[in-house]
Amino acid sequence: MLLRPRPSLLRALAPLPPLTRACVPARRTLSAAAEAAGTASAGDAAPAPAVPRKSARKLAPPPRDIVKTALFLPPGVEPGAAVTPDMVIPGSNIVVGPYAGDARVKEAEFVGSSARARDCPKDDRPEFAVLGRSNVGKSSLINALTRRKEAALTSKKPGKTQTINHFLVNKSWYLVDLPGYGFAAASQSARMDWSSFTKGYFLNRDTLVGVLLLIDASIPPQKIDLDCANWLGRNNIGLTFVFTKCDKVKKGKGGRPDENIKVFQDTISGLYPEPPPWIMTSSVTGLGRDGLLLHMSQLRNYWDNEAV
């Protein structure tokens, strides 16, 4: 089956100089655009079941100076448009846009694993890739989004995911679990192989709508995450920063989640011509689940409407 050309979700950017410190490329992504419609679609989302709090601490709201001055404007929202607080998805910088749609997950099924990018499902359904360090909580986030405890198996050993795993949601779009990067529990040669086929997936997947790049908010910003964002940006691949573990405060590891997010935002703020999308989440408390799904819904609708 022939695939429809992927519409351009990004503005063309001039090449950036080599990465010399924790930094990311200057570019705009429309990934968060979809969720920006969060307010319109939130009422349609299925009610969240009770989730054990595990003594989670109440978090401070996202830094107001960031939210006010670095809003992400999705497709359909013109620069300079009046934005009110109720137009911004809670715990994010994403403004609600006109492409919002039904964000409910009615069913999700595991389709299969692929050891090579060319073995991935060959159809025209849009998909979102979940990427991050090996212990950032990728599997937990996928399980939370689909509300299937074992949709993506979690493990105490980082690096358990060693293939490209496709999950079909509502029989209409894919959620893709990619191998984690960083200190994966595998040989150096295996890590290099994973890197190779993961990059092949990114560069050759026409149905890829956007990447959810997971960042552990319970610890200070990590250079390896910024390096990954840099590579994605250089290759014009849309991403949304998804801050995970926003319910956790780790003693001795530096800062609360909102403080670490502030540092992360300060680090990248000067490198983007326009603010990149980001959202706070917690697989324990359910924070950000509906907003993230709404974000993905809007991206899908934009992708579908712009596809030829």
Automatic annotation (TrEMBL):
It holds the Pfam family MMR_HSR1. Keywords: GTP-binding, Magnesium, Metal-binding, Nucleotide-binding. Residues 37-60 are annotated as: Disordered. Residues 124-302 form the EngB-type G domain. Its cofactor is Mg(2+). PROSITE patterns: G_ENGB (PS51706). HAMAP family: GTPase_EngB (MF_00321). PANTHER family: MSS1/TRME-RELATED GTP-BINDING PROTEIN, PROTEIN, PUTATIVE, EXPRESSED-RELATED. This is EngB-type G domain-containing protein. It comes from Urochloa decumbens.
